Amino acid sequence: MKAILEAKGTMKAVRIHSFGGPDVLRYEDAPTPQPKENQVLVRVHSAGVNPVDWKIREGHLGPCEFPCTMGEDFSGVIDSVGPGVEGFKAGDEVFGRVADESGSYAEFALAATGGITRKPTEIDYAHAAAMPVAALTAWQALFDTGHLEADQTVLIHAAAGGVGEFAVQFAKWKRAYVIGTASAKSTDFVHSLGADEVIDYNTQRFENVVREADLVLDAIGGATQERSFGVLRRGGTLVSIVQPPSEERAHAAGVRAVFMVSQPRGNELARIADLVVAGKVKVFVEKTFSLSDARQAQIESQSGHAHGKIVLSVA
After folding, report:
1. By the 8 A CB rule, do 243 and 220 touch?
2. Which CA distances in Å does 16 have to 67, 75, 210, 249?
3. In angstroms, what is the C-alpha Rg of the chain?
4. What is the mean pLDDT of the chain?
5. Domain 134-259, CATH 3.40.50.720 — does that match?
6. Quick one: CATH architecture of 7-131+283-313?
7. Which regions of the chain carry the CATH code 3.90.180.10?
8. Strand order of the sheet with strand 256-259?
9. 8 A C-beta contact, residue 124 and residue 277
10. For residue 51, which of 315, 306, 313 has the smallest C-alpha distance?
11. pTM strictly above 0.90
């Protein structure tokens, strides 16, 4: 996971020195990292807060070299560039995802040039920082992995969540028929995103409603994933972003089932930004916290009640 690099100078950052609850998050001085080959050092203006952040904090995603700086999403201004960098220079406004050894809950962060793109002037720093992880996960699940096409039917679980709200909008932009699952309080919101049907998972079993879907985007796992095999047409695809699906179950159902981890791709992020600027996709920011209040931001994120992204204001 993320580790602090040899650096010059100090900055404020939110780090963990051990796994645990929100109390292990420390707002403290940390070394300012220096860019290596094909990396840029970004002065962070805003940082996105994602469910993956608290999962890392609690130790669910494997070992971590401590102290570990939290966060993946960021927007900001390039402070300096490392050797071999082309196409970016100091002073450029950018957004994207940090390099593996860095973190975005900090005044400065490292990013590989392949994982960033220029921030359009029409998108502010907070909304830019809300996009990379969730939007890229949705895009890559639907199109790179799921190969969704116009007029196909897609079932999107947790359609009101961070990934789901992007997925619904992307699928409608692609002219697919979109069915989302959500709680009763979120059905109007998911409809407003463009969903053709919304299933209240508390009162309806989605497998009693959906038939012959081309694609299922699974953001829940467990029993929901297991039940999703039955709504796919033979030859259809289940893409999970939370746990590997059963190969045996997929074979029996005659479908393709894939576990996907999103990748930081600046070229795809640029395409998504174009859709936002064109008004075809909306980015929802629910709440903004200061960097020093990252503990409360993660508590809010972990509660699962937000309809939009939670963002840290850094600069």
Report:
1. no
2. 6, 22, 43, 39
3. 19
4. 95
5. yes
6. Alpha-Beta Complex (3.90)
7. 7-131+283-313
8. 197-200, 177-182, 153-156, 213-218, 232-240, 256-259
9. no
10. 306
11. yes
